[in-house]
Amino acid sequence: MPDAEEEGSAALAGLAVELQAVVARAFVIRAEADVVDMAEGERRLRAELDDLWRVQRPQVTRAVQEAAAQGDRSENAEYIYGKRQLRENDRRVRFLRKRLEGMVVVRRPPDDHGRVFFGAWIRLEDDDGAESEIRIVGPDEIDPARRYVSMDSPLARALLGRRVDDEVTIEVPGGTRSYVVVAIRYEEPVES
Predict the structure, then answer these.
(1) Domains parsed from the chain with CATH numbers
(2) pTM over 0.85
Protein backbone atom coordinates (compact mmCIF):
# COMPACT_ATOMS: atom_id res chain seq x y z
CA MET A 1 0.00 0.00 0.00
CA PRO A 2 1.56 3.35 -1.05
CA ASP A 3 2.19 5.91 1.67
CA ALA A 4 1.07 9.57 1.54
CA GLU A 5 4.42 10.74 0.18
CA GLU A 6 4.25 8.34 -2.78
CA GLU A 7 0.64 9.37 -3.53
CA GLY A 8 1.65 13.04 -3.40
CA SER A 9 4.55 12.39 -5.76
CA ALA A 10 2.29 10.53 -8.18
CA ALA A 11 -0.28 13.35 -8.12
CA LEU A 12 2.45 15.92 -8.69
CA ALA A 13 3.83 13.91 -11.61
CA GLY A 14 0.35 13.70 -13.13
CA LEU A 15 -0.09 17.46 -12.79
CA ALA A 16 3.30 18.04 -14.42
CA VAL A 17 2.29 15.88 -17.41
CA GLU A 18 -1.01 17.81 -17.74
CA LEU A 19 0.82 21.13 -17.59
CA GLN A 20 3.30 20.01 -20.25
CA ALA A 21 0.41 19.06 -22.55
CA VAL A 22 -1.22 22.47 -22.11
CA VAL A 23 2.06 24.26 -22.78
CA ALA A 24 2.69 22.08 -25.84
CA ARG A 25 -0.76 22.95 -27.27
CA ALA A 26 -0.08 26.64 -26.68
CA PHE A 27 3.25 26.43 -28.52
CA VAL A 28 1.63 24.56 -31.43
CA ILE A 29 -0.93 27.35 -31.77
CA ARG A 30 1.85 29.96 -31.58
CA ALA A 31 3.93 28.15 -34.21
CA GLU A 32 1.00 27.99 -36.62
CA ALA A 33 0.22 31.70 -36.58
CA ASP A 34 1.25 35.05 -35.25
CA VAL A 35 -2.16 35.63 -33.67
CA VAL A 36 -5.11 33.59 -32.49
CA ASP A 37 -8.46 35.38 -32.40
CA MET A 38 -12.13 34.66 -32.14
CA ALA A 39 -14.32 35.16 -35.23
CA GLU A 40 -15.63 38.48 -33.89
CA GLY A 41 -12.06 39.80 -33.58
CA GLU A 42 -11.34 38.83 -37.16
CA ARG A 43 -14.52 40.58 -38.34
CA ARG A 44 -13.55 43.75 -36.47
CA LEU A 45 -10.06 43.80 -38.01
CA ARG A 46 -11.46 43.17 -41.51
CA ALA A 47 -13.97 46.02 -41.04
CA GLU A 48 -11.17 48.37 -39.94
CA LEU A 49 -9.05 47.36 -42.95
CA ASP A 50 -11.99 47.90 -45.30
CA ASP A 51 -12.71 51.34 -43.80
CA LEU A 52 -9.07 52.41 -44.02
CA TRP A 53 -8.68 51.22 -47.61
CA ARG A 54 -12.04 52.12 -49.16
CA VAL A 55 -13.10 55.20 -47.17
CA GLN A 56 -10.29 56.96 -45.34
CA ARG A 57 -7.48 56.48 -47.86
CA PRO A 58 -9.41 57.99 -50.81
CA GLN A 59 -10.42 60.97 -48.61
CA VAL A 60 -6.84 61.62 -47.52
CA THR A 61 -5.56 61.16 -51.08
CA ARG A 62 -8.05 63.75 -52.35
CA ALA A 63 -7.03 66.17 -49.58
CA VAL A 64 -3.34 65.74 -50.48
CA GLN A 65 -4.08 66.32 -54.19
CA GLU A 66 -6.02 69.50 -53.37
CA ALA A 67 -3.24 70.74 -51.11
CA ALA A 68 -0.60 69.96 -53.77
CA ALA A 69 -2.58 71.99 -56.32
CA GLN A 70 -2.13 75.10 -54.15
CA GLY A 71 1.51 75.46 -55.13
CA ASP A 72 4.69 75.32 -53.05
CA ARG A 73 4.58 72.00 -51.22
CA SER A 74 7.54 72.68 -48.90
CA GLU A 75 5.63 75.31 -46.93
CA ASN A 76 2.13 73.87 -47.35
CA ALA A 77 1.04 72.57 -43.93
CA GLU A 78 -2.05 70.86 -45.35
CA TYR A 79 0.07 68.97 -47.85
CA ILE A 80 2.67 67.94 -45.25
CA TYR A 81 -0.04 66.87 -42.77
CA GLY A 82 -1.94 64.99 -45.50
CA LYS A 83 1.16 63.08 -46.57
CA ARG A 84 1.80 62.13 -42.93
CA GLN A 85 -1.81 60.92 -42.60
CA LEU A 86 -1.45 58.90 -45.78
CA ARG A 87 1.75 57.23 -44.49
CA GLU A 88 0.08 56.38 -41.15
CA ASN A 89 -2.98 55.01 -42.94
CA ASP A 90 -0.84 52.87 -45.26
CA ARG A 91 1.27 51.62 -42.33
CA ARG A 92 -1.89 50.46 -40.52
CA VAL A 93 -3.23 48.83 -43.72
CA ARG A 94 0.03 46.86 -44.13
CA PHE A 95 -0.09 45.81 -40.46
CA LEU A 96 -3.72 44.64 -40.71
CA ARG A 97 -3.14 42.72 -43.94
CA LYS A 98 -0.15 40.92 -42.47
CA ARG A 99 -2.00 40.25 -39.21
CA LEU A 100 -5.06 38.83 -40.98
CA GLU A 101 -2.92 36.73 -43.34
CA GLY A 102 -1.25 34.85 -40.47
CA MET A 103 -4.23 34.66 -38.14
CA VAL A 104 -5.77 31.46 -36.81
CA VAL A 105 -9.46 32.04 -36.12
CA VAL A 106 -11.14 29.94 -33.45
CA ARG A 107 -14.70 29.40 -34.65
CA ARG A 108 -15.92 26.68 -32.29
CA PRO A 109 -15.41 25.76 -28.66
CA PRO A 110 -13.14 22.88 -27.70
CA ASP A 111 -14.50 19.38 -27.25
CA ASP A 112 -13.59 19.34 -23.54
CA HIS A 113 -15.88 21.96 -21.96
CA GLY A 114 -14.60 21.07 -18.49
CA ARG A 115 -11.22 22.77 -19.02
CA VAL A 116 -10.17 26.34 -19.63
CA PHE A 117 -9.11 26.96 -23.22
CA PHE A 118 -9.03 29.94 -25.56
CA GLY A 119 -12.44 31.62 -25.78
CA ALA A 120 -13.67 30.36 -22.41
CA TRP A 121 -15.68 32.41 -19.96
CA ILE A 122 -14.28 31.71 -16.51
CA ARG A 123 -15.91 32.69 -13.21
CA LEU A 124 -13.26 33.18 -10.55
CA GLU A 125 -13.39 33.62 -6.80
CA ASP A 126 -10.55 35.52 -5.14
CA ASP A 127 -9.15 35.20 -1.60
CA ASP A 128 -11.82 37.56 -0.24
CA GLY A 129 -14.68 35.53 -1.72
CA ALA A 130 -15.47 38.10 -4.42
CA GLU A 131 -16.45 36.60 -7.77
CA SER A 132 -15.60 37.98 -11.20
CA GLU A 133 -15.91 36.66 -14.72
CA ILE A 134 -13.42 37.00 -17.59
CA ARG A 135 -13.04 35.67 -21.10
CA ILE A 136 -9.71 34.59 -22.59
CA VAL A 137 -9.28 36.14 -26.04
CA GLY A 138 -6.56 37.01 -28.54
CA PRO A 139 -4.37 40.11 -28.27
CA ASP A 140 -6.47 42.04 -30.81
CA GLU A 141 -9.65 41.56 -28.79
CA ILE A 142 -8.66 42.85 -25.35
CA ASP A 143 -11.49 44.90 -23.86
CA PRO A 144 -11.62 45.50 -20.09
CA ALA A 145 -15.18 46.85 -20.31
CA ARG A 146 -16.35 43.51 -21.74
CA ARG A 147 -14.06 41.53 -19.37
CA TYR A 148 -11.94 40.23 -22.27
CA VAL A 149 -8.42 39.28 -21.10
CA SER A 150 -5.51 38.51 -23.44
CA MET A 151 -4.37 34.91 -23.61
CA ASP A 152 -0.86 36.29 -23.11
CA SER A 153 -1.70 37.84 -19.71
CA PRO A 154 -0.32 36.16 -16.57
CA LEU A 155 -3.84 35.37 -15.34
CA ALA A 156 -4.92 33.74 -18.61
CA ARG A 157 -1.70 31.75 -18.87
CA ALA A 158 -2.22 30.48 -15.33
CA LEU A 159 -5.82 29.50 -16.11
CA LEU A 160 -5.28 27.67 -19.41
CA GLY A 161 -5.89 23.94 -18.96
CA ARG A 162 -7.42 24.30 -15.50
CA ARG A 163 -10.71 22.76 -14.34
CA VAL A 164 -13.48 23.86 -11.97
CA ASP A 165 -12.24 24.02 -8.36
CA ASP A 166 -8.59 24.36 -9.44
CA GLU A 167 -6.68 27.16 -7.73
CA VAL A 168 -4.22 29.45 -9.49
CA THR A 169 -1.79 31.93 -7.98
CA ILE A 170 -0.29 34.79 -9.97
CA GLU A 171 2.29 37.44 -9.20
CA VAL A 172 0.90 40.98 -9.11
CA PRO A 173 2.71 44.23 -8.31
CA GLY A 174 1.61 44.08 -4.65
CA GLY A 175 2.55 40.40 -4.12
CA THR A 176 0.48 37.39 -5.14
CA ARG A 177 -3.21 36.78 -5.78
CA SER A 178 -5.00 33.46 -5.69
CA TYR A 179 -8.16 32.55 -7.54
CA VAL A 180 -10.35 29.46 -7.60
CA VAL A 181 -12.09 28.49 -10.85
CA VAL A 182 -15.81 28.43 -10.02
CA ALA A 183 -17.29 27.87 -13.49
CA ILE A 184 -16.24 27.48 -17.13
CA ARG A 185 -18.46 28.04 -20.15
CA TYR A 186 -18.06 28.69 -23.84
CA GLU A 187 -21.10 30.74 -24.79
CA GLU A 188 -21.78 34.46 -24.59
CA PRO A 189 -22.66 35.83 -21.15
CA VAL A 190 -26.24 36.59 -20.25
CA GLU A 191 -26.48 40.38 -19.92
CA SER A 192 -28.24 41.52 -16.79
Answers:
(1) 38-104 (1.10.287.180), 109-192 (3.10.50.30)
(2) no
